[in-house]
Amino acid sequence: MEGANLSAVMEFVFTGFPQLQDGGLLYFFPLLFIYAFVVVGNLLIFFAVRMDARLHNPMYNFISTFSFLEVWYTTATIPKMLSNLISEKKTISMTGCLLQMYFFHSLGNTEGALLTVMAIDRYVAICNPLRYLTIMTPRLCAQLSAGSCIFGLLILLPEIVWISTLPFCGPNQIHQIFCDFTPLLRLACTDASVILVQDVIHALAILITGLIISLSYIRIVTVILGIPSAEGRKKAFSTCAAHIAVFLLFFGSVALMYLRFSATYTPFWDAAIALTFSVLSPFFNPIIYSLRNKDMKDAIKKLLCPQKVFNVPGR
């Protein structure tokens, strides 16, 4: 009888969403627009880089890989959010919850690893420009991109498998807008100390990654400030300004979410912070990478209007 009770919870209920009659549709359409923008914007960047030979260099190859990951990163959570906003029953199965958590955080870890690679790439380009092409070879870039993906997809597997073996016998309400480690572990009928251990492990991973990237960019900025000419400083800074902005947006929101330790937020701020790094950060990334980048804007125009671009020289 006890074993039956321990395995009773087979689905979870999200409590972070407003009911349909309480204005769920008011959130549905803005979120749908953001999701469509994220998918279209990041795919445009991905295909623009792949199809324009002028952008076949390490920096843009890493950006295109990052943009491709962003599409799947948001797809892991936003479609289910949209469904919950217009559904009376805001539930997810145990298997669905574990899969959502795995893909969301695996892709997030992959992006974190790739942001580290991108910081190292800019470090070599700015601090050791004469050896850049001999160091950042196409083969090494492909290995770094593939390594980031393999690392991200494998590092969380043991933790997800371990969580799948835990008994869930109590309440089944997840106080969040998607499946996440801490809200889910709070529902497990097991020692609460595992939550603290898990929080510390995740915090260390975020801090170490953030520290490596921060040190790289601090060194880069130091070298840029030492360039004699103002034009040279402007040109050098323009090559890494977008990377720094994306890094601050991504790791800033992640830090707010996962480096809280004993601090607690109201349900509103919990949902707001979760939306920042799961929705708003991917929304701004296509804008950041293309807004002030002439080469990227030209490549996107060429992708969208090939005949117009190709017919200009023949006039």
Automatic annotation (TrEMBL):
Listed Pfam families: 7tm_4
Localization per record: Cell membrane
Signal peptide: none
Keyword field contains Disulfide bond: yes
MF-aspect GO terms: G protein-coupled receptor activity; olfactory receptor activity
The entry's keywords: Cell membrane, Disulfide bond, G-protein coupled receptor, Glycoprotein, Membrane, Olfaction, Receptor, Sensory transduction, Transducer, Transmembrane, Transmembrane helix
GO CC annotation: plasma membrane
Membrane topology per record: Multi-pass membrane protein
Gene3D superfamilies per UniProt: Rhodopsin 7-helix transmembrane proteins
Residues that span the membrane, as ranges: 25-49, 140-163, 200-225, 237-259, 271-291
SMART domains assigned to the protein according to its UniProt record, in alphabetical order: 7TM_GPCR_Srsx
Residue span(s) of domain G-protein coupled receptors family 1 profile: 41-289
Function: Putative odorant or sperm cell receptor.
Family note: Belongs to the G-protein coupled receptor 1 family.
Record's protein name: Olfactory receptor
Organism, scientific name: Canis lupus dingo
